[in-house]
Amino acid sequence: MSKDPQFRLAAETDADILLRFMREYYEFDGHGFDPEKARAALTTLLRDANLGRAWLIFDGDIPAGYVVLCYGYSLEWLGRDAFVDEFYLREQYRGRGWGQATMAFLEDAAREGGIVALHLEVVRDNLAALKLYQKLGFREHASKFLSKWTARDFSKRRGRNGY
């Protein structure tokens, strides 16, 4: 195992490996997974750099995970913001500093892209991730994160954590 992760911007040709990681991540975190709808959403992101970016995380030549940053804009957050939409490392890479290194890489990429604030969400039971994000300066807010599907026939099945 390498000491540090390497990152490569994902392209549409990486969709299959990204979908495998997505399936693993969704199972780990308790999200519902629909492969066809996931492929459609992923392909849309990979084709349009205005929506965000996805990176594969490598241990040498071995894919170890992925991270996705989706762009937005917020008056409350004073400009261009982004959501760390997905971040997954295979189990053997956790607890070795790879999460912290990935988040440092992501923050640098966000700054270079003119992002003024990063947001993320953590499943309550994922205490290791919560501890890492708090250590890196992410803070909870008194508000609650709420969601509603607006696209008809494009929702996915509910996972064990409600989404």
* N-to-C SSE string, H for helix and E for strand: EHHEEEHEH
The beta-strand count equals 5
State the helicity in percent bands. 25-40%
Approximately what portion of the residues adopt beta-strand conformation? 15-25%
* Backbone shape: globular
Please state the average pLDDT score. 88
Structural class: alpha+beta
**Widest sheet: strand ordering:** 1-2-3-4-5
Tell me what you see in this structure.
- The chain is of the alpha+beta class and about 160 residues long.
- The chain contains 4 helices and 5 strands.
- α1 (about 15-30) packs across α2 (about 35-45).
- The termini are far apart.
Features:
163 residues, single chain, 4 helices, 24% strand
Topology:
Blueprint: E1 6-9, H1 15-29, H2 35-47, E2 52-59, E3 62-74, E4 79-89, H3 98-112, E5 117-119, H4 127-135
Parallel strand pairs: 4-5
Antiparallel strand pairs: 1-2, 2-3, 3-4
Helix pairs in contact: 1-2
Compact overview of the structure:
This protein has 163 residues and is α+β, with helices and mostly antiparallel strands. The protein has helices at residues 15-29, 35-47, 98-112, 127-135, and strands at 6-9, 52-59, 62-74, 79-89, 117-119. The chain is built from four helices and five strands; from the N terminus they run E-H-H-E-E-E-H-E-H.
